Amino acid sequence: MKNLENIKNLYSRKIYTNRIIQFGEGNFLRCFVDWQIDLINEHTNFDAGIVMVRAIDTEFPPLLDTQDGLYTTLIRGLNEKEEVVKDYRIIKSVNREIPIYKEYDQFLKLAEEESFKYIFSNTTEAGIVFDSNDKFEDTPPKSFPAKLTRLLFERYKKFDKAKDKGFVIIPCELIDYNGEKLKEVILQYIQLWNLEDDFKVWLEESNTFCSTLVDRIVTGYPKEEMESIENEIGYKDNFITTSEYFYLFVIQGPKWLEDEFKLKEVNLNIKIVDDIKPYKTRKVGILNGAHTAMVPVAYLYGHDFVKESVEDEIVGQFIKNTLSQEIIPAINMDKNELEEYSKAVISRFRNPYIKHKLMAISLNSMAKFNSRVMPQLLEYKNKFNKLPDRLVFSLASTILFYRGKRGQEIIELNDDKNILDFYKELWNSYDKEQISLSDIAEKVLAHKQFWNRDLNEIEGFKDILAYYLKLIEEKGIKEVLTQIK
Predict the structure, then answer these.
(1) Distance separating alpha carbons of residues 402 and 296, to the nearest angstrom
(2) Within its chain, how far is the Cα of 478 from the centroid?
């Protein structure tokens, strides 16, 4: 490989006004939020510089400051026209990164800069939690909400309760109504630390907490491809991050955010909505639901990856028909919008740059089936007074998946021990001819740990589930799938 210059020696970073404080420096925020902010900066007068806060105590990777805040995003996949696209972009909107455990005083001084207006975060699903051991005088406190409470309190004091000096707070953690949850935890810290009532009033009245839904597969640092990528772009970049082409950012917040983010001037898939719930339902039902319904069918059929599964003539048609004929009809949203999203999901599954293993998705399949597929299965039954064949077939395949065998191959199952023990006992009893497949169907449907109810109460459910279990057991999944697809 030829000797390449570092990105910071070839490109200069534009100095934007400090307007965004970002908790988290990981691949997702850099290839999702920061990528979008950079596009808004380029095409409008938004003028928003980002200060990253490294909220965990680690020196790896090095600070982004070692590259003057510059890094490359590589967006690749299938576009709306089903064309393979690959787009490199140098992100120039990050002004600095503060390691909070080493520079806590610098972190608190951010509250003194009047220009800051927005706070973004992604501190993992476990990040928005209350820890009663956190103290006001800690430098810093442990939890992200406690750190944020300290910053907000400094802001409140510095500007003497000024109502126009609050923040728009936009968390991106993958939990339901993350903005509301974050605010709830901050209020707990105000009470724990016995902070003044006026601060609580200022928090409530002068700050806007937004809940979000974020949707993009970020595949991160492409370690195995770095030599070819660096030869292609012509410079070294230790922070390059990769993602799929598709993205969606849904923000539950006031309509004036559309003007704040200049959304009429730049073509971005950012939606400001009154309630994120319909978009959550759509994503869980179509994207996550298709994944969960597909995995046992495709894996037992003989596939190992998502892409090869959707491109298989038989399995692919099963997935598409499941979406169009059973999942979409069960979701109470605009049908055209659902079909467009479904089309995008299939395109994402076919992304040639993402090698997504079915076994990786299979983790905790029972819990996933209950939260991602069962709501649509039951709603379909309520709407049409019949059970959806493909979703029941998928449940039958899931039960057979937990048998732990694909032909002569042993499946390395990964789930809660109680669930694995339940299926082990069930299938051992069947192999010893102590119970029938109908008994298995009945026992699975009756398991309240899975479903929080006895699904045998639904007329015909046990019979059709047992029917598919027998059909697959007798004829094999490949033959049966040609009939049901």
Answers:
(1) 9
(2) 32
Residue with tokens 């630390």, as numbered in its chain? 193
- In eight-state DSSP terms, residue 67 is G
User: DSSP secondary-structure letter at 62?
Assistant: P
- Supply the CATH classification number for the domain 7-275: 3.40.50.720
Q: Which residues of 111-122 are buried (b: 16+ CB within 10 A; e: fewer)?
A: beeeebbbbbbb
Average pLDDT over residues 324-341: 96
The CATH T-level fold of domain 278-484 is: N-(1-d-carboxylethyl)-l-norvaline Dehydrogenase; domain 2 (1.10.1040)
pLDDT over threshold 60, residue 433: yes
96 burial class (0-12, 13-18, 19+ CB within 10 angstroms)?
A: middle
What number of other Cβ atoms are within 10 A of residue 359's Cβ? 14
Mean pLDDT, to the nearest integer, of 244-263? 97
93 with 48: CB under 8 angstroms? Answer: yes
Query: 3-state class of 349 per DSSP?
Result: helix
Q: How would DSSP label each residue in 308-326?
A: HHHHSHHHHHHHHHHIIII
| Enclosing H/E stretch for 97 | strand 94-99
Backbone angles phi, psi at 466, to 5 degrees: -65, -35
Residue-range domain boundaries for the chain: 7-275, 278-484
Token pair for residue 313? 């003539």
- Among residues 183, 412, 180, 393, the alpha carbon closest in space to that of 296 is found at 393
Provide the residue type at 207 as one letter: N
Q: Which two tokens stand for residue 331?
A: 């979701």
- Region for residue 225 given its phi and psi (left: phi exceeds 0; alpha: psi -120 to 50; beta: otherwise): alpha
Judge whether 145 and 185 are in contact, CB under 8 Å.
yes
pLDDT for the residue numbered 65: 97
Given phi > 0 = left and psi -120 to 50 = alpha, else beta, which region is 24?
left
Whether the CB-CB separation of 445 and 461 falls below 8 Å is answered with yes
**What number is the average pLDDT over the span 441-461?**
96
Residue 68 has pLDDT above 60, yes or no: yes
Q: Which two tokens stand for residue 117?
A: 């207006």
Cα R_g (the chain), whole angstroms: 25
Residues 6+ apart with CB under 8 A from 382: none
Q: Which tokens in the block code for residue 191?
A: 């009470």
Cβ atoms < 10 Å from Cβ of 238:
14
Mean of pLDDT over the chain: 96
CA distance linking residue 367 with residue 427, whole number of Å: 20
CA atoms within 13 A on the CB side of 452: 6
